[in-house]
Amino acid sequence: MTEKEKMLSGKLYMASDAELREEAKRCRKLIRLFNNSTEEEMDYRTSLLNHLFGKVGKNVFIEPTFRCDYGKNIYIGDNFFANYDCIILDVCKVEIGNNVMFGPRVCVYTAGHPIDAEVRITGLEFGQEIKIGNNVWICGNTVINPGVKIGDNVVIGSGSVVTKDIEDNVIAAGNPCKVLRKITQEDKEYWNKKREEYFED
Asked: Which top CATH class is 3-200?
């Protein structure tokens, strides 16, 4: 297996590999161009994201600045918004569903390093895929750790550190992030009433 194949399959690999260095260099160039673009260049930004990511859905907006490792391993659905200073370390696949919002400084980390110091200092590292479902709101300063799956219709509170999977239809928060409660019919009725009041004004 190549180092890239090892990386994408979650095995130990060497990031100093020539192929991976070239892909990282390509990524950094596209990110530099994206982060230096202006609000008058929205079509250009969209074009850069289409070149950067493995998949880009419709209506994807990322507020500069943004950082990632390779870009090609990020797959984004429709109606995605990421606020300032988002970081995605995509040494493995990061899959983001439809209608997902990231607050400022959300960090998504697929990358990991061996616990044993002797192995770690050799430069070997590894990754684990992350999957985020549909209709998810991840609030500011949240960190999502390697291997985590977040279900559909989830709200993650600000400042959370997500170390384990989060089920569908819940509010979760904390360090480590834990489910606080289910999202209920009462929540739906409350927010639909608020929406009706908005249109009445």
From this structure: mainly beta
Q: How would you label 59-88 residue by residue, b for 16+ Cβ within 10 Å and e otherwise? A: ebebebebebbbbbbbbbbebbbbbebbbb
Average of per-residue pLDDT across 38-49: 96
First to last CA, the chain: 62
- CA-nearest of 76, 56, 85, 71 to 20 is 71
Report the distance separating Cα 92 and Cα 109, nearest Å: 9
Which of 113, 131, 149, 178 does the annotation list as catalytic?
A: 113
Predicted model pTM: 0.95
| Residue-wise pLDDT tens digits, 145-192 | 999 999 999 999 999 999 999 999 999 999 999 999 999 999 999 999
44 SS3 class: helix
Length of the chain as a residue count: 201
Q: Is 51 labeled as catalytic in the residue annotation?
A: no
Over residues 129-140, the pLDDT tens digits come to 999 999 999 999
Residue 196's identity, in one-letter code, is: E
Q: Count of CB atoms within 10 A of residue 121's CB?
A: 10
